[in-house]
Amino acid sequence: MDGIEEDAGIGSHSGGLPRSQYPEPHETPTFAWSGQNVDHDEGSHPEQQFPLSTNQYNDDSAEDEELSDADSDYLDLKTNIAKLEDSVRKFRREQRDESDDEDEESPDETRTRRKGRDIKGRVITRGPRKAAVPTGDIRARMGRASQAFIEENYEEAKLLVEEVIRINAETHEAWTLLASIFRELGDIDKTLLALIYAAHLRPKDASQWLNAARFALEETGDHRSKNLPSAKFCFSSAIRANPKNDFEARCGKAEVLREMGSTSAAIVEYKHILKQRPHDTSILRLISEAYIDKDNVKAALDLYSKAIDFYRISDSQPGEKFTWSDINIYVELHAYLGQYADAVKELKSLSRWILGRESELFWDDVLDDDREWDSDDTRRVLHPSFCQGKYGLHQYGDGLPMELRVKLGLYRLRLGFHAEALSHLHWLGPENEYFADRVLDYPDLFHESADSLYQAGLPEEALVFYRALRAVSSQEDASLYLQMGKCYLNGKRNREAEESFQQAITLDQDNIDARVHLAKLYEELNEQEQAFIYVNEIMNLRRLQNSKKKQQKSLQDVTQDNDTLMPTVTRSRSYYKPKRLVNLEERQRQEQAASDRLQEQYAVMRMQRDAMRAGDEDSTLAWMEAAADLIDDFRGFKTFYPWDKYVRFLGYTVGPARGQPQTGATPLDADLAEMANRISFKLGADVDSRNNVAVEIPENYRGIPFSAWLDIFLDYALCLVRYGKHQEAYEICEAAKDAVVFYHSREDMFLIHVCWCACAVLANDEETCVTACRYFMKDYQFTTDTYRMFAALTRLCQSPISWYSSGPTQKYMLRQIKAMDYGLVNDDARRKFFSEKGSYSAQDESGRLIVNKDMDIALLMVYGHILYTGTSYAYALNYFFRAYALDPENPMIKLSIGLGYVHHGLKRQSENRQFQIMQGMTFLLDYYKSRRASDKVEERQEASYNVARTYQMVGLSHLALPYYQEILDEARTSETKEDLVLDAAFNLQTMYSMSGNMRMADYITSTWLQK
What we know:
Layout: H1 2-7, H2 61-65, H3 72-98, H4 107-113, E1 115-117, E2 123-125, H5 136-150, H6 154-167, H7 172-185, H8 188-200, H9 206-218, H10 228-241, H11 247-260, H12 263-276, H13 281-293, H14 297-313, H15 324-336, H16 340-354, H17 402-414, H18 418-425, H19 435-441, H20 443-455, H21 459-470, H22 478-490, H23 494-507, H24 512-524, H25 528-560, H26 584-613, H27 617-635, H28 670-683, E3 700-701, E4 704-705, H29 706-722, H30 726-738, H31 740-743, H32 746-762, H33 766-779, H34 784-796, H35 807-822, H36 827-833, H37 857-869, H38 873-886, H39 891-906, H40 913-932, H41 937-953, H42 957-973, H43 981-994, H44 998-1009
Antiparallel strand pairs: 1-2, 3-4
């Protein structure tokens, strides 16, 4: 067994080394970290090698003759080495003789075995000799090393400590300090080795071994699993060091053995502990878990039964040694074996004992209900043996912990006592107004109750608990909605089931079970198109999962063979051959060579990607060169660009026959394949009846996922536009848009057009920016943010507004407004005022056109501003007023109307200029009033500035001055990241200068403009 092998000294340690290969006490270990590889005699540290061989240090007599008296340190060192080797040989012989059965022997036997008698009959204790007292030189060096460590000069401290170890490797303090140094330097492996070395020098000090073991388990982070053998070795050494008090060491060793998968050996250790501490419930819990892992629950149950019998007759108070948690574990062991009736009986009996009512044995005869655990005596008084008032209510139902009450309800549910089970489960209060606190306190109990009720055929009762979990956001996940959907399906509530399954998919995009249920539901409801969509998604996800499993397996195989070097692929120049003349083998060879070359380019791209995105010039050029090769190959693969790209993409092929995808085919479940064929037949879809081979939907090309391909396209386009190659960047975006692998993905198309817009903004190309924005306004029609995005992007372009207010843009926006109006009027109005049907373009997931149900203020304002920038103020006011009717309190609408009137009044054709300006100022002042009420300083400054600038524009400078002054006065008392102080001050300075008030102009300049 694993534990016996370890105690015998043949267990493995980290790195696969046997225990005998670790440095033993008095053995001079060498350094893997010193970076030197010269002889030990010369004061350096050769590489770490275990075990220390007897001929490690050669005694060269010729060299000794040449030594002078000044080399006494060297002679002392060689003498100490000889003594050390002799001690090591003796110690190893002793360890080999004693380690086989040391753990099993008593301390007295161990002491007897380790004693012998000399010729005169004196008792001699065998074992390693005590370490020599450190010399003055060593103490001085250790003092300097400690001082350097305190001053955080770790490199100097390490050199001093290594020098001490070179002189005398038995210096325990040196190894301890070296471990501390490596810990501060963050070198976990070397810290652990140094701790083990230090422990070897104090082999009978269990605390040293335990310290090393704790470090291996608690401070090695992600490398914990690699250091489990080291921890096991240290715990075993601690057991040998102090067999009288080995509780912590054996517990630690058992835990490590379980983690390493040696459950049987762990059970042996737990049994050792139980011999020392019989009926210790903490150990019973651990050994029960181990027995469950070995599927030997009966053994754990027997141990708990013996412990219960012991505690019931002991002098300790109930609940002191055997607690509610132990009852929970004990009854769960019964439930694990399917003994629900015994679980109910034991739960009630033990709970009664802990609550102090052990004498009420008559409750054991009540098998069909749990009236004993009611909150009041209503049902209890019906039992003739019950004496009301003998015990308090807190010793009945109120005293039973919630966890055990729910367990009791679940066991009753499995026994078929549904009413009794529900009475217990509803103590959780799922319909209580304070249920949220209960859900946070007992989330696992709510989940377990709901799942058990569903499995028992009570979906409506289960939904009560599921809804309580859903109401608490921290408990909302895909599995919850999946279970709710199943409950709704059982209750024939299809609409709620659909919503639940769709929400599960929203929370977990890879959820297959929810898609399966939705596909079956839609097929049952004769929604064949929706069913076919979900079946297709399921097939894709199954293939993806199988592909990931294969990749993980291949990675494991590579890891197992990591010692074998991969052969270098050498490519020879080959002559060009038309592909129709190339046989299958040659074609595959060419494809493999091209794939290898592109994989190398892809590796370069991944290596340079972060630096490229950070703006490094050299990395950007190297990345672009590699990306150009990959994109050219992708664009040259004609299957990605079919004539009819609107046909749904089902797979790509390289060979002459369809149904032979470049990626390997993955078998599908029979039920899904049958469903796909059935739905395809109903839809009249072409399933390739010629060869009846399912077409594989690939997830990658040339071994690169399509998501990575999209990133390459978009990053390359942005790099091109940075170097002024705008048209090439647009071509890359268009190539990505037309690729069939991206065309049918709404998310991919969204990203492509966002990148396209970014390129246009960087190039200050308003025409392309407007064209790219049309995609969003078309596919996300009547979505407010799309029109805001259009306005923002055209504003960012540092170019004239000709394309913003161009004829095509005006016509497109007008069609959008007509389509919006078309859906909001009755049939009579449509026939009277609309010559054609509305131009609807957005579709939902089912492919149906989305018709608006209300007006979009942003659309009206965008079109109004397009007319406004074209100086068609009268027409713009029409749409501004439509928006004003929808949102009369919007300050920006008021500002737009006011400026429209003012500018219209300033036109030469204006019939009544004063009236128009007064109308405009009325709206502007209304805007000013609402904006100045804002809590934000920026908005208040904006209101003052706009009114002042309008007065200045119409020549009323004296009316503009107070509003500009408001901005400056407010700036004295508040600070903002964005303000209009400089603009206001400059305008004030200009007005004062033009009016001849130079004193005020100088004051404004010195106060606000010369900071």
